[in-house]
Design a protein that fits this description.
Helix content is 0%, strand content 59%. The chain has 115 residues and is mainly beta. It has one domain. It has an 8-stranded antiparallel beta barrel. A hairpin with a 5-residue loop joins β1 and β2. The protein is globular, with a radius of gyration of 13 Å.
Length: 115
Amino acid sequence: MARRLAFVLHEHRKPRHHFDLRLEENGVLRSWAVPRGLPTSSGQNRLAIEVADHDLDHLDYEDADKSIADSGWWEERDRNERRIVFTLHGQADARRYALIRTDSDWLLHLTRDQP
């Protein structure tokens, strides 16, 4: 059985409140800053700003200004050059999202079809 790829959602309180979504891929954590947090309904799109990859030791990293909001494993459902559809299997439940590339950033979308 293949090893499951990890994810972590960090909540940052400084300098401005935001979240970082980190997906394990190719030995690093691909990372997006999500200023308003993950969408809670399929009618919402949230800005996701791709930031530098992080080392895997950030999976459990916390400090005075950063805590883990959720963690678990993720699986890719579909991908092309403009979109990644994936399911996060977090501490409470599984939710399917799409990261959609725009001209300058990404949008994070909760899909209508949920696991």
